[in-house]
């Protein structure tokens, strides 16, 4: 397993051995994977495209190692999994095999003990490799949803769950959003009622990513009715529960969606679903405070994933603009092509600075009490907003640069455009981020 103390010692081994790590089986691709094509599918050009000045040695080591792993999964792999809507389990297994699923989890349980800064770099690198949001989202919850568990879980919970998550034996999903409350988290209706040594869960969750392949769910549910609490933020509790698909009290319904089709999204129904009382994380009624610990981390990770998608799109577009000849000249000579791409690139670079500043603040705030959680929240929300908007601009312009071929699945940019809407919407919409900044930074009246 990679660890904070040994990451540099292991990185050279990871780089050398990654070519022999788990590869996708030919039967799961539309055609057999060409090894020469895989080796060509390095991120060398991507590295030149995105300026790497100012990153730490840890971040660059993570980037190099993850690039090597992702090079085993060419664009054809992601095209096929997008079209067939099948889980990219081989990527998950390859990252687990080298210990990367525990990048931000404690060393004492087999994690790397690194920070959200390094985890953001990992998820950006996965997305930028051509895997896009689908590849990043296949491990997304394993990174951020486990942060509240690692901080507030008891020793027994940590020992029984964290090592299996890191090894890849256990996959995790995050159950918060509900169809009738949306972003109004404080009014969640899914209930968890204590009955002796168990809780009985009833309610519905929606947009739960990877529930079909997960065996654990980090769940936020109401343990005290809203009308009985003093503050709306009270009465919610967090649980780490098993997903027993054979139990008739639990039902999963897959949602057909526009993009990120390689990872499943679901409606989850609980009908008196019983879980042991020891699945409670932390103190009953303090779930909202606990979940906030993971929310800012998730915004950083989403920002990284959006950046990766944007850089991948711009790289594709720039390459096409140099090679596509119309009226006897490469279309990249036309300022109508070149200027929008240059503008999109600069927006990505600006969003990159915001994203990694937010991740740095998040990491430092755990030890430096002079960094307020308000500052962290503003930085993380701003970073997610800016990265999502920059990615959308980059992906839209990549499609337009390709012209008619931008509409073809073969060129990948249409897949990127479908996926780039995710960070604009989830886990919090851009409009709600604007509301947050208006109220918390500009001191304007609350609008909702």
Automatic annotation (TrEMBL):
What keyword terms does UniProt attach to this protein?
FAD, Flavoprotein, Oxidoreductase
* Flavoprotein found in the keyword field: yes
Could you give one GO CC term from the UniProt record?
plasma membrane
Domain Acyl-CoA oxidase/dehydrogenase middle residue range list: 173-271
Domain Acyl-CoA dehydrogenase/oxidase N-terminal, first and last residues per copy: 56-169
Q: What are the required cofactors? A: FAD
Write out the GO MF terms.
acyl-CoA dehydrogenase activity; flavin adenine dinucleotide binding
Domain Acyl-CoA dehydrogenase/oxidase C-terminal span(s) in chain numbering: 285-441
Q: Tell me its family.
A: Belongs to the acyl-CoA dehydrogenase family.
Q: Which PANTHER family match?
A: ACYL-COA DEHYDROGENASE, ACYL-COA DEHYDROGENASE FADE4-RELATED
What is the designated name of this protein? Answer: Acyl-CoA dehydrogenase
